[in-house]
Amino acid sequence: MNVRTTSSRASGGALLITLLIAGCGSTAPHDPASDQASSASSVMKTVSVEASWAYDIEDQTLVAGASDSIFVGTVLEKLDSTSRMADLPETQYTVHVNSVLKGDVSGDITISQQGGIDAEKNTLLLLENDPLVEAGSAYLFTAVLDPKVGWYTITPVTGHQDIPVDTASQLEGAGRGRAAPPELQSVTDMRIAIENEVVPSENEVTPN
User: Fold this and answer.
1) Is 205 helix (H, G, I), strand (E, B) or coil?
2) CA 78 – CA 155 distance, rounded (Å)
3) Which three-class secondary structure state does DSSP give residue 166?
4) For the chain, which residues make up each domain, given as ranges?
5) What digits encode the pLDDT tens for the residues 14-49?
6) Among 131, 138, 59, 153, which Cα is nearest to 99's?
7) Strand, coil or helix: what is 41?
8) Fold topology of 4-195
9) Hey, which residues does 29 pair with through a beta bridge?
């Protein structure tokens, strides 16, 4: 099965230009904790979705330039999922913002991650094998706000870097200034990227 579709950053808050859903995938026992509607005995097929990007998502200066919000946050709970693209599920979560590096974001917000469960096909679709974030975990998020729905769509693949939960809690209310040393290297690297951010060109396309 091959499905090709398009999305814009304006409509989906995404970096995604095209999707190619390949027919190959892996079948593995499904963890019921990730989907309470499934029984422990169910088997779910996992499919990786190949994508082309509007820019190099491995370049943190470009990611910083494209993101209107960058923050450390703790995932509180998974929400009922709503998708804005017919061929790609999205998964929403409530996230508590612990510390902001860029943007105007605070308190508890809704983030959306591209990828999720297609219940009709009993399939978990992951964008470039990007694992879904987990409730109870903390991350350094880079995201774009979709004002139509009020969600912060995180950058695919590179937009959620693991942060120890206790470290995220210690950053509470720290503001944009550098935390007392030692600061996590991932946070320091992102601060440097923000200082040197580059806004991607609308005409720039990075192939797979």
Assistant:
1) coil
2) 18
3) helix
4) 4-195
5) 455 555 544 444 434 444 445 544 443 368 899 888
6) 138
7) coil
8) OB fold (Dihydrolipoamide Acetyltransferase, E2P) (2.40.50)
9) 43
